[in-house]
Amino acid sequence: MSANTPPPSAASPMYRLHPYWYIACRSSELRAEPVARTILGIPLVLFRDETGSAKALVDRCPHRNVPLSFGKVSDGKLVCGYHGWAFDGEGACRDVPGFTGEPNHRTRCASSHAIVEQQGYIWVFMSAGVTPESKPFEFPHMDTKGYTVVRRDLEAECSLHAMAENALDVPHTAFLHGGLFRSESVRNPIQAVIQRFRDHVEAEYIGEPRPTGIAARLLSPSGGVVTHFDRFFLPSIIQVEYRIGDENHIVLNGACTPVSETHTRMFAVVTANTRVPAWLLKPILLPIGLHIFGQDQVVLRLQTQTIQTFGEEDFASTEIDLLGRHIQRLLRLAEAGQLPDSDEVVATRDITMMV
Amino acid sequence: MSANTPPPSAASPMYRLHPYWYIACRSSELRAEPVARTILGIPLVLFRDETGSAKALVDRCPHRNVPLSFGKVSDGKLVCGYHGWAFDGEGACRDVPGFTGEPNHRTRCASSHAIVEQQGYIWVFMSAGVTPESKPFEFPHMDTKGYTVVRRDLEAECSLHAMAENALDVPHTAFLHGGLFRSESVRNPIQAVIQRFRDHVEAEYIGEPRPTGIAARLLSPSGGVVTHFDRFFLPSIIQVEYRIGDENHIVLNGACTPVSETHTRMFAVVTANTRVPAWLLKPILLPIGLHIFGQDQVVLRLQTQTIQTFGEEDFASTEIDLLGRHIQRLLRLAEAGQLPDSDEVVATRDITMMV
Amino acid sequence: MSANTPPPSAASPMYRLHPYWYIACRSSELRAEPVARTILGIPLVLFRDETGSAKALVDRCPHRNVPLSFGKVSDGKLVCGYHGWAFDGEGACRDVPGFTGEPNHRTRCASSHAIVEQQGYIWVFMSAGVTPESKPFEFPHMDTKGYTVVRRDLEAECSLHAMAENALDVPHTAFLHGGLFRSESVRNPIQAVIQRFRDHVEAEYIGEPRPTGIAARLLSPSGGVVTHFDRFFLPSIIQVEYRIGDENHIVLNGACTPVSETHTRMFAVVTANTRVPAWLLKPILLPIGLHIFGQDQVVLRLQTQTIQTFGEEDFASTEIDLLGRHIQRLLRLAEAGQLPDSDEVVATRDITMMV
Questions:
Q1: Which residues pair with B237 in a beta bridge?
Q2: Tens-digit pLDDT profile for residues C48-68
Q3: What backbone phi and psi angles, to 5 degrees, belong to B175?
Q4: Neighbours of chain C (3+ CB pairs under 8 A)
Q5: Distance from B81 to chain C by nearest Cα, in Å?
Q6: Which member of A60, A81, A103 has the closest CB to residue B310?
Q7: What does the pLDDT look like over C209-224, one tens digit per residue?
Q8: Hey, what domains does chain C have and what are their CATH numbers?
Q9: Distance (Å, rounded) from C-alpha A52 to C-alpha A32?
Q10: Which ipTM was obtained for this model?
Q11: CB contact under 8 A, A81 and B355
């Protein structure tokens, strides 16, 4: 479907990860009107057919290249607003008003994308015209008794890689978010074990004290043992899992959707089972979380602008940049089609850092 | 004059139609001050010499490349606002203040363009420094007794080709302009005969009922036979000619001026002889016409943006896309210098469509 | 330091003059906070170390490419706002919070630039990591008894070359600034002698009458002999020196800082010893000077826009364009490393112009 693919930008290669699922929007956003969303630089239009099933086409009428999202949905067909060409959910042309011949023809089809709607999100498979063998990521504990679910749709002016590394990076929390989350002044040595698998990477932090910030003190006033995992799943899922003391289990999930090289959305889902009741916790923790993300947005935008000014990334690292390089390696292997076959651990590393 | 030609953009080849006439502005717009206009991406400056003749130069002082339109007209010369270099209507340098030598020199000339001023418009020939053999298009019936003339200067964010096809395209009128002009719900089969000549193409619609919209009902309340021609003349003239019943003859002319790849102006001239008196018709039809053009502007801008996003046009068609492909073919032949010599019909086609 | 150099733009070659000094900002602008400035397209961050010495690094953290100017200065180190990496004035990494190893490492250094702070300005040497053999330009008479000093920081949307030529160009003053400075109507023939040296060029005007504008009449009401030199020093210093009658000595200096191909700053310093006392002169002459510069800003911006539209400069000249071509030649020789060794006069020319 080369004619339906935008020309390559100055994109780094990690962005050509089309045969994967990405969230386009929430289920609740897609009603009677078509919805336009861009993923991996490709404009898509989403709509619901006559059965209510979500459908995704490339957002360009094959006739005169007006965006189909300018049109309307009529009898479960997406109708272009210029000449009224009508398309079904698979992109076949079903009506050309005024034309006495058969409307459906190979050249008059819109490219279609597979969709899965689950857990309140609409996921799109970004290889056009393909029936995917894989399934989208499932957010854990969304239906588990005792767990509260909080959703937020976030976005930042940065690449997918920058967003994922930032979300899973521990050292910056003490600095950029100092006081809110971790403290810059009090640091303790901890161990981190990194394990890279076929399609994901995980860091486990051992001996981490309860964070000293406000948030952690609310959750576990008496301190207690902390278990902490950070994970990245191809192509774009981040996950932070905490157990603080016996009573608190918190999983922060973020399904990232690369809009362009420099713009990424994150559909965040927090599932938590905590000692403090949910109705009490949410009004306190949510503003803190959004404040933290606001600080990240600023630094990510500045990082993106600086990389654009200099024309390319030029990163130096230390061993406490635990996951960034592994994320990048996974993205590159996936893009090159060189992921290993088995899901055994392919790399493991044990390092000390001050947290 | 390569040094005076902007570098090629991502232009489609159809835009390199320089040896043709285009309207720069209305006669009434060009008074004592120089006027800047861009055509085919080339900035021009228009001014009137000491005899009142309109003149056109490339809008760049050959001295230090300040736009000459920043200057003023003095004694029929165009004087640059930076150092006062003065140019006559042919672009020769007539004064270099402070310089004791002869100002006129080959390297100090501004490129000039031939001009014809007629029917209230200033036409520019876009090959610089050439005395053209051809003449500009003449709008018909502008001086015929009984005809009312309405002028409007319009513009849209689209290519010349997109504007011309849109203006001459029948099928979208029932859809995009549904109700105003033609109806989406009631359709009748009609015949269309397309004839392509050396430098223009014409569609005649046979058996077309009087359009059901408000406009047509005003003109011919009792119905009556409709004669309808759509025409495109190289490089950029569109013409829609209607006879509705015995009493109404309406010719809509549009002289398009490509400003850039994605911006086109249209100098529209409607000449009409109708049963309803002109003073009654104009306040009703003009707002309808401008409303229709406003809808076209929106869809043309969206089309342009989508083509830019995907990097190129990718159009599919049916046979009821009567004129678009012929327009494109004429533009391409003209650009390649491959127009046939004779003005006999070079192609004819007979199709059925529902209107 | 190729990784720290932005990729070449559509820059003309004259801008690659890195092994030279340029003013980044005034001394008074650099206090406790880091200051961001761009020179030759390279973003720099300036800060003061623990001794108060000004330091300049490339404004990109080597870690994750966030601009260091987003950070803060702590104990004389520049601390990145993202992870807290701390750099000394030479760009060495002195702290990586959380990292238990040695922070300083070749890959973790920020590029540094030599700085000289003198006469209230901070000069930066634009070849990174080099100890320069040359010294910055010194503004004359800043500490001479009887001289008043006026400073203004100006900027315009133009290249360094366009700004320097404009500042030293006599013919446009009678036209663009007609009446304020020189008159368009009354002109007298004068001689100009141009001498080009190894790294500068000078025009001396012989027989120039006292300018007829307001400014000159204030300074020397009785007329008197005028001595007038215009000078350009590589890479970017302009100087206009006037003696009007016996009592007035005025030197206008401008140290130009090329920010980008199309944006240039000028740190202007006027040193003057005049018959009219300074407190009386400044409120009259300063607004006139700023008005004149405002007119130049307009024409320089239009010149830049026109050059961008056409893709390149295409200048014609006469012999009264005294210094522009010499400035360009010096810039090109300097860039190619082909400046002559000796400082003897390498060219001299004698021309007549009407002023």
A1: B233, B255
A2: 999 999 999 999 999 999 999
A3: -100, -65
A4: A, B
A5: 6
A6: A60
A7: 776 666 677 777 777 7
A8: 2-125 (2.102.10.10), 148-354 (3.90.380.10)
A9: 10
A10: 0.92
A11: no
